């Protein structure tokens, strides 16, 4: 069974069962080793770099982000 099939099956569960499954899955992440965590961060960094390279996302400068935050907080 592949991940998409598992996701589809999980989404068909009643809400209480989905919540329990989500809690179990999230709790399992606490048990990751430093090596596993580093590998996951590398995969995430590669995914983000690919998004930038193929134009899926656009970079925003830190200054622009700060201006937007300040505007929201006013």
Task: Note down, in words, how this protein is organized.
It is a single chain. By secondary structure, the protein is an all-alpha fold. The protein is built from 4 helices and no strands.
Helices and strands in order, then pairings?
Layout lengths: L2 H9 L3 H15 L4 H20 L8 H12 L1
Task: Give the tags.
2 domains; single chain; 74 residues; mainly alpha
Computed Rg: 18 Å
Can you count the beta strands? 0
User: How many structurally independent domains?
Assistant: 2
| Total helical elements | 4
- Look at the helices and sheets and give the structural class: mainly alpha
Taken from the alpha-carbon principal axes, the silhouette is extended
- Report the portion of residues in β strands: under 5%
* Order of helix and strand elements from N to C terminus: HHHH
- The low-pLDDT segments are none
């Amino acid at each position: 069974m592949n991940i998409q099939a598992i996701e589809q099956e999980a989404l068909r569960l009643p809400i209480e069962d989905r919540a329990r499954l989500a809690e179990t899955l999230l709790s399992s992440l606490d048990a990751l080793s430093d090596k596993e965590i580093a590998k996951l961060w590398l995969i995430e960094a590669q995914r983000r770099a690919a998004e930038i390279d193929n134009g899926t996302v656009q970079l925003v400068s830190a200054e622009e982000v700060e201006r937007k935050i300040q505007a929201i907080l006013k």
